[in-house]
Amino acid sequence: MEHFHHRLMAKGLSHGKAVLAMWAMAGSCSLVAIAAAFGKGDQLFAVFVFFGLGGFILLRYLGYFRFEFFGQGLSNIINDRKSMKSVELAIKEAEGMALGLSSLNGVASCVEKAGEGMQFHEAEVTFYSTNGRLGSNFDIEDPAIGKVVRWVDPQQNGYFSRDKEFVAEFQISGRNYSYGKIRYVFMDGRSSLSVQDEVLLERVHDALALLAGRLRKAEYKV
After folding, report:
1. From CA 128, how far away is CA 134, in angstroms rounded?
2. What φ, ψ does residue 149 adopt, rounded to 5°?
3. 132 and 221 in contact (C-beta within 8 Å)?
4. 3-class secondary structure for 152-173?
5. Side-chain half-sphere exposure of 74, counting CA atoms within 13 A
6. Terminus-to-terminus CA distance in the chain, angstroms?
7. What does pTM read for this prediction?
8. How many Å apart are CA 83 and CA 96, to the nearest integer?
């Protein structure tokens, strides 16, 4: 960033006038400091308000504040908030779909709805089974697979560089049984999931675990 006198000279002042302007500003600061030492109440408040306002106008005139920068920052915040609301809405719809299912046939639709918000490239849900019933005991290291549901975003077909691939895997667990796992593949170049992403995906996992538990009680066969 340029020095103060460079900014003043860029506004048309000569070197001498720029120095005089800086002396004047230094003198003004000294007077404000003296006024602050002896001023009281409303007088002191008025001194600070006028000094702050004058300083802001001067700095703005010299180009130290650019409102378009703050405008862009505010615009980015608003856009990010709108994007997060759309993600949360998609996750909420995926939860509702999962809780309303009476079989595993609609799981792919739930994953698809979640994918609309989270923007993952593909997902694979593996459900465990024991003697044809959903779920497996937690102490079984290699549980039997009862059903696999796979979903791939049809709008992201084509070649993807493996350098952009990020895989995240989570367990789908209930209170008494492990019901399976879900594997997500992202192709947007990320290297990890944010805490917010994990929280949103956990809501989907919990809904799938509730579905599996309900189907197990109903002796649903896989």
Report:
1. 6
2. -115, 120
3. yes
4. ECHHHCCCCCHHHCEEEEEEEE
5. 5
6. 68
7. 0.64
8. 20
Going along the chain from its start, the domains and CATH numbers come out as: 4-65 (no CATH), 84-217 (3.30.450.40)
Q: Is the separation of the CB atoms in 35 and 47 below 8 Å?
A: yes
Residues with Cβ < 8 Å from 96, sequence gap 6 or more?
none
pLDDT (tens, 9 = 90+) of the chain, 222 residues, equals 456 666 666 666 676 776 777 777 777 777 777 776 776 666 667 767 776 777 767 666 666 555 554 455 556 655 666 678 899 999 999 999 999 999 999 999 999 999 999 999 999 999 999 999 999 999 998 999 999 999 999 876 656 667 789 999 999 999 899 999 999 999 888 999 988 899 999 999 999 999 999 999 999 988
The answer to whether 92 touches 209, Cβ cutoff 8 Å, is no
For the range 107-113, what are the long-range contacts, defined as Cβ-Cβ under 8 Å and sequence gap of 24 or more? 107/149, 107/208, 107/211, 108/149, 108/150, 108/151, 110/204, 110/207, 110/208, 111/149, 111/151, 111/182, 111/204, 112/151
- Alpha helices by DSSP H, listed for the chain, are 4-10, 15-38, 41-61, 67-99, 107-118, 195-217
Q: Determine contact, residues 108/123, Cβ cutoff 8 Å.
A: no
